[in-house]
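Ticket #4471: structure output looks truncated?

Reporter: J.K.
Steps to reproduce: submitted the chain below (177 residues) through the standard prediction queue, then opened the result file.
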Amino acid sequence: MDVQIPLSFLRALSDRIGRVVPPPWIVEESQRSLVLLLNHVLTREPQALARLAGHKGRKVHLHWRQFSLCLAVTPAGLFELAPEDRDADLSITVLEEEPWELIRATLHSEKPSVRIEGDVQFAAEINWLADHVRWDLEEDLSLLVGDAPAHALGQAGRVFMESLRKFVAAKPGGTAP
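Returned output as attached by the reporter:
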């Protein structure tokens, strides 16, 4: 008996959305917001800034499906948007095409399969960032709403994420969403 996943419509929706090409202004604003978030997280980690500052001017080009992002390292050890060209020092392509598999891997703290081309030392620093730099969302929330509410929201978020991990790990009918 083949059991359908209750949320299988999400897979079909993600497939359709994956074929839609967003307008350039949405892509640019999304990229700017992502860079601001990355830099915010990096500023909380002085060691990360110091490590990246040694690679000032180098560019990393990130690819997944039809999406790409080119970042350059500033002298302060932060990222800035760079023009997309073939002169990136490092190119990282996420090989997993399926969004659901990326979500599953992320929820299980796994890194997706990637193809890396370019500067080995720069790639090692980017890998170090992926392994060691984490966004302390609870700390940022505490600046907005205070420590106690931020802690309560953090607890609720952790419970939600654990429930989501269990949901994704359960494979009804032998298939994952």
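Triage note (M.O.): checked the attachment and the full token line is present. Strands lie at 59-64, 67-73, 79-81, 90-94, 114-118.
Status: closed, working as intended.
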